[in-house]
Amino acid sequence: MKREIQSGFAMLTRGKKVSAPPAHVQVEITNACNLKCETCHRDLLYPHPLHMPLDVFKKVIDEIRPKRVNVSGIGEPFINEDVFDMIDYARSSGAKINCATNFTLVERKIEDIVKSGIGQLKVSIDAAKRETYDRIRKKDLHQTLI
Q1: How far is residue 118 CA from its own chain's centroid?
Q2: Rounded CA gap, 100 and 71, in Å?
Q3: What local confidence, expressed as pLDDT, does residue 20 receive?
Q4: Cα-atom radius of gyration of the chain, to the nearest Å?
Q5: Cα–Cα distance between 37 and 32 in angstroms, integer?
């Protein structure tokens, strides 16, 4: 038993060497959102939302060199003004990009999204009926999705 504990400890404390970059990394480029959904606890977790600066994002990509990058998290990625520069930088390093969005800020950015080369865009809709959507999202933006 003691030997098993020692070998487990040795495994936890051994040098941090990686033989290959991770296949996937999720980089939360903002924890800000334009909605106040009743199902989300973002405001409790992040009372003072922040955006990741482009130079920090570049450092993450340069150090990790992931094959795929998800540029979303608990915030709405299209709030970050550098989102397209971040996508471009990650793609230029060879990474494929995916992103989840509430799709309420993209009306004037559709062309930019298509040109950005995002490989996968996941749209959170939450409801088929306007009344349900408005109740969950706390904003009347249902028509934006149709």
Answers
A1: 12
A2: 8
A3: 75
A4: 19
A5: 12
Residue 30: name the closest of 60, 83, 92, 75 by CA: 75
DSSP string for residues in 51-98: B--HHHHHHHHHHH--SEEE--SSS-GGGSTTHHHHHHHHHHTT-EEE
Tens of pLDDT, residues 57-90: 999 999 999 999 999 999 999 999 999 999 999 9
CA atoms of 42 and 116, how far apart (whole Å): 27
Residues 122, 138: Cα–Cα separation, whole Å:
21
Q: Which residues contact 37 (CB under 8 A, 6 or more apart)?
A: 126, 136, 137, 138
Tokens, residue 31: 């924890």
Query: How many Å apart are CA 70 and CA 125, to the nearest integer?
Result: 19
Quote the pTM value.
Answer: 0.78
> How many Cα atoms are found within 13 Å in the side-chain-facing hemisphere of 38?
10
Given CA atoms 81, 86, 92, 95 in this order, what sign does their dihedral have? negative
Q: Which pair of structure tokens corresponds to residue 85?
A: 């520069």
What gap in Å lies between CA 131 and CA 146, rounded to an integer?
14
